[in-house]
Queue: 2 jobs
Job 1
Amino acid sequence: MSEHDDHLRPNLARRRRNARLFRHLCAGLTWLAVALLAVLLIHVTRQGFGWVDLQFLSSFPSRFAEQAGIKSALWGTIWLIALTALISIPAGVAAAIYLEEFAARSRINSFIEINIANLAGVPSIVYGILGLAIFVRWFALGRSVLAGSLTMSLLILPVIIMASREAIRAVPMSIRHAAFAIGATRWQTVRHHVLPSALPGVLTGVILAMSRAIGETAPLVMIGALTYVAFVPEGPLDAFTALPIQIFNWASRPQQEFHQLAAGGIIVLLVVLLAMNAAAILIRQRSQRKARW
Amino acid sequence: MVEVGLTIQPTDTGPAVAQGNRHILVTRDLSIFYGTVPAVQQVSLDIAEKSITAIIGPSGCGKSTLIRAFNRMNDFIPSARMEGQILFHGTDLYDDDVDPVEVRLRIGMVFQKPNPFPKSIYRNVAWGPAINGYKGDLHTLVEESLRRAALWDEVKDRLNESALDLSGGQQQRLCIARALAMQPEVILMDEPASALDPVSTAHIEDLLYELKKNYTIVIVTHNMQQAARVSDFTAFLDAGRLIEFGQTQQVFTRPKEKRTGDYVTGRFG
Amino acid sequence: MTTVAPTLTGKRRRRWSERGIRGVLFLFAVLSVLTTLGIIIVLARETVGFFREVSVFSFLFGTRWTPLLEPKSFGVLPLLNGTLMVVVGSALIAIPTGLASAVYLSEYASPRMRNISKPILEILAGIPTVVYGYFALTFITPVLKLVLPGTQVFNAASASIVVGIMILPMVASLCDDALRAVPGSLREGAYALGATSYETTTRVVVPGALSGVVAAFVLALSRALGETMAVTLAAGATPRLTLNPLESIQTMTAYIVQVSLGDTPRGTIEYQTIFTVGALLFSITLIANIVANRVMRHFREVYE
C-alpha cells in the first residue's frame, strides 16, 4: 500500500499545478479577445471622435478633409437597407415557411436545404461578381441602388432563411394540431398561429441579417457603388455610395486626415450597428418573458 | 359469457340510448401501421349517433391511433399507413375525393393536454368559425359555445384576456367550447381529463351528459370508472385488436370475453 | 334521409387557393437553387473564355501574375500564396485562442462569466470587415513596424492578425457547441478516476468533440479564405511568391477588388480574370464548406 502512495503523491501536486495553469491559460486567452476588442474600439474612437459632428453628418465628401462628410454615404446606406429589407424579408420568410411547413421529406427538399447551407459559406465577393453579371449587366440595372439591394438580398437570404426556420420550428406542434383539429388548412394555421408566434424569432434573425448587410463592402465594390458621390439617391435606379464604401475609400488614402475621417465614419457605422443589435436583444428578451406555451 | 364479481358498478342513471340510433361512423376491418408495425388490427366498429362510445384498453393498445384516424389526424404522421375503411354517413373518409379539412369541420377533437391558442378567450372560440366565413353573429356563437362547455359564467367578464391565464380545467373546457363552435356532428376526445384534477374531471364528465343530447361523442380513456360512468357503449382494445364491443352495462357486468373481464376487474393493464 | 357526406368533397376553391399558396412559397425556396446555378454559370462562362486564351496549366502553375501590365502573365500562384499566407497566419491566431476560449466557456467559466464573455464574442463577430481593415492599417502595422523594423506599410502579417481576430468568435462559438455536446457522463467518468480538469479536458472532452472541433476550424478557415476588405486595405496589391509575412502581397480577393475599382472594359482578358480568380476562390471555399458540413453531420450522428 505504501509503495502506491510513494508513486502517487509527487504526481498529484504537479498535475494540480498543470490543471491550474491550463485553466488560467484558457481564461487568459479568452480575456485577450475581450482586450483586443477594447483596443480596437479605443483606437477608433480616439482617431475619429473629434471629426464626428453635425457638419460631418450633413456634408458630402470632398477633397478637403475638413469639409468632408458622410451625407451621401448615410443616405445611400439607408436606401440600400430599405430596399434590401423589402426584397429579402418576404423572400426569406416565404422560403422558410415552405421548408418547415409545406415540404415533405423528399430528395428535392433535402437538396434545397444543403444548397442553402452551402450558400451561407460563399464569400461575399462572389455574390458581388454574381450581382455584377446578372443585375448590373444582364438586367441592365446599371450601378444602381436596386442592383446593390438585389445583390445584398441574395447574400443575406440564407441567413434569414435559417433564422426563420429555427423560429418556426420552435412553435410547439400542439398549437398546429389544435388548429388542424378544427378544420383549418395548413396556410390558415401558419398565417394565424405559427407565424405570429414565431415573429419575435424571425424579427431577431432579420435584424441580425440586416446588420450584416450594412457592414458588407465587397459586393458593393463589385457592382460599382461609386466611391466619390456628391449626391443623394432619389430613386432605386440612381447611383449611390454606402457607409462602408466611404470608409474604405478614405482609409485607402495615404493622408492622416482621411484616416481620421474614416474613423469618424466607423464610429457612425458602429453606433448604427449597436442600435440594431440592442433592438434585436430587446425583442428576444421581451418575447422570452411573454412566451408561455 | 362470464359472470364476474365487480369492483366497479356502472351507473344506471342517465337516459338510455334508443336501440334504433343509426350508426354514422363505421369502421370496417380497419388496420393502421406505423411503417411495418401494426398499431390497430382489423377493427370493425359502429358508432351510434348522439351517444357516448368509450374506447378502453391498456397502454399502447392503439386507442389513440384509432381515434385519430377518425378525423384524419394520422395524415400528419409520415409513416402511418392504413388498410380497411372508415365510413362517415356511408362515405369513405379516405377516398381520394375527400378533403381532410372538410372531415375535420364535421368531426372535431379535444386533446389530452389542453392546447388553447396563445390568444384571447374570445379569439380562441371565434377563430375557427370566422375563417370559415361564418355568416351569423359571432358573439352569440361564442357565448353559446362557452355555455355549452359550462365555462361561460367563469369567463364572461374577461373574454379578452389571454386563454393561457386560465387553469388547466378551464383551458380544457375552452378547448371543448372551441370544438363546439365549429358545430361538428362528432366530437372525438383523447383522454380529455387525464391531465386534470378530480374536480375538473368531474366537471367534464357532467358536461358529457349534456353534450350527448346534440353530439356524437367518442372518448378514449384509460380510466375505467370514467368509462363506466359516462358512456353508453364501450369498446375494449388490446394490442390493436377489438376484443369486445357492446353496451357499457353489458361489457362491465357480463363481458363475453375473458380478457375483457380480466381488464375491467383490474387483473391487468 | 339526407346525406351530409357529399359536401365532404366540396369546397374546391379552398383547395385550389391552398395549392396556389404552396406553389408561390415553393418558388421562393427554389430561389436559392437558382442562386447557386447563377453563380456557377456566371463564373463558368467567363472562365471558359479565359482558358481559350491562357492554358489551364500556365494559370494554375505559373509564378508571375501581371494581367494588367506588359508583358502580361497569368500564373495565379502568387495570389494563391498571398491568400494562403493570410489563412495560415489567421489560423495560427484564431485556432489556439478560439479553442482555448471555447474550453474556458464550456468547462471552466461560471454562468456569470459566460454571460459576459459570450456577448462580447458576438460583438467581435459583428464588426464589419472594413473596420478590421482600418484597424490593421492604422494600428497593427505601426506596432509591427516598431517591433520588427523590416515591416512594410502593406504586409501579410497585419492582415493575418486582424483576420484571425475576426474569425476567432466563430471558432470559439462552434467549438463551444461541440464541447457542450459531449455527454456529461464522459467527464464524470474521468473525474471519478481521479483525473484533473486539465487531463479530462485535453484527453477526454476535446477528443470526444473532435469532429465538431475540426469542422469548426475548417469553416472558420473557409471564411478567412473569402475575406476581402481587411486584406485589401492592409495586405497590399503586390502579387508575390514569398514566405515573408512582413512584405506586401496580394490575395485572390484583393485582386478582384483592384480590377473592379479600375476601368476594365467588358470582354477583355483582364475582365475575364475577375471571373476566373473568382471561380478558383469559389471552388476552394465550396470544397472546404462541403467537407466541414459532412464532418459536422457525422459528429451529430454520433451523439444521436
Job 2
Amino acid sequence: MQSVEHIVEIDSLIKQYPVGGGLRAKQVLRAVDGVSLSIRKGETLGLVGESGCGKSTTGQLAARLIPLTSGEIKYKGRDITQLRARESKAVRREIQYVFQDPYTSLNPRHTLGTLLEEPLVIHGIGERRERKYKVHEMLERIGLNSAYSAHYAHELSGGQRQRIGIARALMLEPEFLILDEPVSALDVSVQSQILNLLKDLQSQYDLTYLFISHDLNVVHYMSDRVAVMYLGKVVELTDVDTLYASPLHPYTQALISAIPTGTGEVKRERIILQGELPNPLEIQGGCSFQSRCPYAYDRCSREVPALTHGGEGHLVRCHLHS
Amino acid sequence: MNSKINLTLWLGVVLVSILLIIMIVGLFYVPYGVNDMNITDRLKAPGSAHLLGTDNFGRDILSRVMEGARTAFAVGFVAVSIGVIGGFIIGSLAGYVGRWVDEVLMRAIDALMAFPGILLALILVAIYKPSLFQTMIAIGVLSIPTFARIIRSGFLQYKEAEFVKAAKGLGASHARLIVTHIFPNILSSIIVAASLSFSTAILIEAALSYLGLGVQPPDPSWGRMLNESQSYISKAPWYTLAPGIFITLTVLGFNLLGDGIRDLRDRRK
C-alpha cells in the first residue's frame, strides 16, 4: 500500500454536533463517524452517499472550513489539524474547496475580477498589474472572456458562475481540490461542460480531486476510485470499475441497481431499500445499515462491522464479507 | 410600484436637501442677530421685514429657526455617529464571536432597551448639567441598541454565508472577512437605520429642550423655542408654528429618505 504516494491521508475523522441541550439530556450527533481515506496524487477519489450521510462535512473538514472533533488529516505526510496560523495559511494555499452552490459562494457585491484577485491579495502574491494579468489569463483558461472581470456574479448563468468558483480555487495553483457537488446545482446540459473542464484542468495542472456527489453517473465519469458513505461511515471503497461492476455492500448494491440503464443493456433487478434513512440519533448498537438491509441477520444488531478487505484493494464494511 | 418608491426617496432627498441648505446658509448669513431684541417689534406677524415674524422679545424667528437647524443637525449627526460606532463595536463582537460574548452583550443591550428612551435621556442629562454636549451624548447612547441589533443580525446572517466561508477557505483573516465581505453587505441596513435614527434624535432633542433639560441658552433649539412660545400660542401662533413645522419637516424628510433607501434596496434584491 505504501508504494503509491498518498497526498492526503485522513484517519479516523470524527465530527460531532451537540443536539438538544437545556433540560433534555444532551445528545451528540456524529455527522462523520471515523472516516479514513487515502487519496493518491493525481487521482480523483469519488465520495458518494445520500444527503445527510456526512460526505460534505467530510469535505469541509478536509478543507478545514470547520473544526474537527477528533482524528487526523495528513497532507503530504504532515498532520494539518493542529497548525499555527502562518503554516495553516500556507497549507490553505495548496488545498482548495469548490462549493456546491455558485449562487451563494460568490460575494454578490464584488466584481468577478475582485473575486478572482482576492486569493492572490490574501496571500500577497504579485503586484497589482501582475494579479490583473493572472485574473485575465484564468478567465480565458476557464472559457470566459477577460471582459467578464468587470461583471458581477448575478449577471452570469449558473454554469458560468461555477466556472468562476473553480477559477477562484485555482488562482492559488493548489495541488488538491475538494469539489463539493460542483455540478448538482446546474442544468444537465451544463454539467458535462463543467465536468470536462474539471478533467482538462486536472490533467493540465496535475491536480488531485476529492469529488463529492450523490450522482452516481457523474461519479462514475469522474472518479478513479470511489468511497461510499452511509450515516457518517465509509461502507465501501474500491476502484470505480470494480465498484460499479461488482459492489459488495448491500447498500452499494442498492445504489448501483437504482442507476437508470440505457437502452440495449440487460435490465438489472432493482433493489429497493425499505424505509427511510434512520434518525442517526436513534441508532442502537450494531451495523448502522441493519434497519434497511435485506440481508440483515442477528450478528448485524450485535456487532459493528469493521472495514475489511473484500478483495484486492476493495474495502467493505459488512459482516457478509468478513 | 417604481414611481411610488422613487417618490418616497425623492421627497426625502428634496426635504433633507432644503433643510441642509437652510442650515448651511444659516452658518454664514442670518437676516438678524439671533439674540438682537427689539421691544417695539414684539410678536410681529410674518411680513416683509420679518419673514416668519418675531417673538416676545422682538427677535427675528427666521434667524432663530436657522440657528436652531444647526443645533438639530449637529445633535442628529453626533448622536447617530455615536450610535453607529458603539453599535458596530457591540453588534459585530456579539455577532461575529458569538457564544457567551453574544449573550453578555445582548443582555446588556436588552437592559438598555428596557428603559423608555426619553426617560433614560432624562436620567443621563440630569446626572450632569444639561447642555448641547450632554444631549448629544445621551441621545447617542440611546441609539446604540438599535444599531447593535441590526449589525449583530447582519453578522449572524453573513457569518455563515457560503461566500464568507469561501473566503475563509482561501485563508482570509478575520479583519478581511469583516471589512470586505460582511460589512459591505450590511452597510445598506446601517444607512437606513441611520437615516431613521437621525429623525428620532432630532425629535428627542426637541422634546428634551422643550422640557428645559436639553440644549441650554444661548445655543438655539427648536424644542426650546416651542417651550418659550406656548404662553403666546393664541396671540402669536406663528411663533409656535415656525419651529414646529421645521421639526415636522426634518423628521418627515429623514423618515422618507430612510424608507426610500430601504425600498430601493429591497427592489434591488
